[in-house]
Structures are given as C-alpha cells and as structure tokens.
Amino acid sequence: MPSLRAQVAALLAIAAMALVSAGAQTSADSLARGVVLRELADSTLWPEGADRDPRTGDFYVASVRHRTVVRVMANGSEHELWPRGDRQLGAILGVRVDPRRPLVWATTSGIPQMEGWVPADSAIAALLRIDARTGRIERRWVLPVAPRGHVLGDLALGPRGDVYLTDSYEPVLYRLRPDADTLERITHPLFRSLQGMAPTDDDRFVYVADYSRGLLRVRLADGDVRRLGAAAGIDTRGCDGIVLHRGAIVAVQNGATPARIVRFVLDAAGDSIVTAQTIDRNPVLAPEPTIGTMMGDRFVYVANSQWEEFDDAGQLKPGVRLTRPRLVAVPVPR
Fold first, then answer.
1. 3-class state of residue 248 by DSSP
2. Domain total for the chain?
3. Which of 15, 19, 164, 302 has the fewest CB atoms in 10 Å of its CB?
4. Are 334 and 246 in contact (CB under 8 A)?
5. Is the four-CA dihedral 88, 101, 40, 155 of positive or negative sign?
6. How many other CB atoms are there within 10 angstroms of residue 243's CB atom?
7. For the ranges 21-25, 143-147, 216-220, which has the lowest average pLDDT?
8. For 311-316, what is the mean pLDDT?
9. DSSP reduced 3-state for 282
10. pLDDT at residue 148 is higher than 80
11. Phi then psi for 119, rounded to 5 degrees?
12. Which of 24-33, 46-55, 273-282, 285-294 has the lowest mean pLDDT?
C-alpha cells in the first residue's frame, strides 16, 4: 500500500526502480479508460480496500481513517457496518466478500493514520469475520504484539474457502483454512514488503505482490516461493492490490509515476510473465489507486485513496483539499 512506500524507498532507489523507462508500458501520458462507477459521500473516509458482493451488487469499502467498513448499495446509498471510531479496532485496510456465505472478511491494524490514534493502538492487529447481514463482528483472529507492530494490508479468499492475508511490517503470509482456529504462517527470505494476493483456481498457488521484490508465486503444498520470470522491459515492482483474471494478473501499480493499472499475462505454466499491458492510467481521476476487484470483465478499484494527503502522523498536509472517494471501473481485455 502507498503508506509503506517510504519504508521501501531506499530499496527501490538502489534497485533503480526503472518503471518509467521503457516504452508504452511506462509512458507518462494519460491512458484514461476507466470511468467512475461509484462516488462516496465522505471526503474524509480514506479508503483502502474494496470488494463487491456479486449476489447483491453492493460494494464494501474499508476506511483507514474512521476504522469502519462502508457498504455502498446498488442504489448508491451508504451504510457503515458499525459506528466509526471503535477503540477496539484499528484502521480497516483489506476487505473481501465471501462468495459462499453471508460473510465479509476484513483486516485491521493500529496505525497513526487512523483518527484518534494513540501509541497503545500499535498493538491492534486482527483478521475480522463479519456477518454481512447485520454488520456484527462474529470473530477476531488477533496477532501477537510485534516490536514494530503489524500492517495487515490486504486479504484474499481461495476457491475452497481459505483466507489469505499479508503483513507488510513483519513480512508474513497468513493462511486461515476453512473452520480452522489458527492462522498459519508462511515466511520466506524473498518476503520483504507484502501487499495483495491472488490464489489460483486449483488452490495450489497464491500469487503475492511484494512492493520491492515484484510479483511472487507461493506453492502452498510446501511453501516454496519463486519470483515470476518476465520478458525484457517488464518490471513488476511497486504493485499493491492484485487479482487473477483469465490467465493474467491485474495489478494496481502505484509504485510507478504516474500510478497505473497493469495486466500481466502469464505463460501456460503460470510462472512467468510474457507480456504487460497498461489498461488504465489517469492521474487526474485516479491519482492514488490501491486495491480493486473484478466485476465481470471490468476491474473496479479505489482510485483516490488519501495516503499522500496526510503526513506520517496522520495530519492533513497544509493546503490539501480532500476529494470524495471514487471507485473506478476499467474494462480488462481478453
């Protein structure tokens, strides 16, 4: 997520982060293909994660600032699942709708960017299971306190009901198996700044975006991790939210300037990228994209999160005027 960019800036500089150097994939010109699908009412929301319930058409948007989740109904009306500012919760970062059960999954972490933060909040870190019908938090999987705290930035649901989540501060991929009581930890030397995930349909692998390493593939049977190979000129670093769609990884690459939505086409084995195509790049409409979801053959993503509008202490920068959060939809080529 963009909030971690400062922590990996030195690493990216050392690695040259050559995302702005190669042809059409990295042109700074606008490539505006996305359109606004929803615009939320509260400009102070500070959205991060977003997902859609295919059964109802409702969107769920995570609020970093107000420690809640906003349900945006198909008719445009909005409803917060619980009152904002709950002191037992941190910033809500990732959110995913369970396609099989009336559940919403979310991640929460205590970070200075949330309203009312105090140092003791750094101990907050949990996976939440939420009743989608009532908004009641049914269960929490709480992580033990870590010296640097935790940032549970995103999560994904596997085809058999497994829940995956990443910790960006303590680079761990967590797995919660269906009906399990314990989060399983997957670690690897390649993990440095973990972001979004995308499980495969056969439940053998999960793709993970590492902000400074690039796109990785984790083999779930034994925890083997490999960096995806890529054709010359393709750089997968700086990716935040990702989804897997029709043999390609659709990624929010907000480590590039300007930020963009990229489609990385995989080879038949799924371990290398053969082509990369920028499908949306619009600094005016989508200056700070973060996480998205598929809606048919359209990728819907948070276009204007507010990480760059606030300082590290969570204070609005001088002269900044917040805009209403937007969900932007862009067609994904076949």
1. strand
2. 1
3. 15
4. yes
5. positive
6. 21
7. 21-25
8. 88
9. coil
10. yes
11. -50, -35
12. 24-33
Burial tier of 122 (Cβ tally within 10 Å: 0-12, 13-18, 19+) = buried
The single residue listed with the structure tokens 């005016």 is 284
User: In whole numbers, what is the pLDDT of the chain averaged over residues?
Assistant: 91
Confidence tier at 27 by pLDDT (50, 70, 90): very low
Q: Are strands 91-97 and 78-80 parallel, antiparallel or unpaired?
A: unpaired
Tokens (6 digits) for 176: 């919660």
CATH number at residue 185: 2.120.10.30
Residue with tokens 């990369």: 276
Phi, psi dihedrals of residue 165, rounded to the nearest 5°: -145, 155
DSSP characters for 24-78?
GGG--S-B---EEEEE-S-TT--EEEEEE-TTT--EEEEETTTTEEEEE-TTS-E
pLDDT per residue as tens digits for the range 42-92: 999 999 999 999 999 999 999 999 999 999 998 999 999 999 999 999 999
Buried b (16+ CB within 10 A) or exposed e, 46-69: bbbbbbbbeeeebbbbbbbbbbbb
Q: Could you tell me if 116 and 83 are in contact, meaning their C-beta atoms sit under 8 angstroms apart? A: no
Place of tokens 């970070």: 111
Q: What domain range is 203 assigned to?
A: 2-331
DSSP label of 178: T
In this prediction, residue 167 carries a pLDDT of 97
- Quote the DSSP letter at residue 123: G
Using DSSP, state whether 271 is helix, strand or coil.
coil
The two three-digit tokens of residue 149, written as one number: 């705290």
pLDDT of residue 312: 86
3-state secondary structure of 309: helix
Beta-carbon neighbour count of residue 323 at 10 Å? 13
pTM comes to 0.92
| Of 205, 118, 211, nearest in space to 168 by CA | 211
Check: CB of residue 9 under 8 Å from CB of residue 247: no
Q: Retrieve residue 223's tokens.
A: 């925890």
Quick one: which H or E segment has residue 173? Answer: strand 172-176
Task: Give, as one character, the DSSP assignment of residue 166.
Answer: E
Please report, as a single letter, which amino acid is at residue 154: D
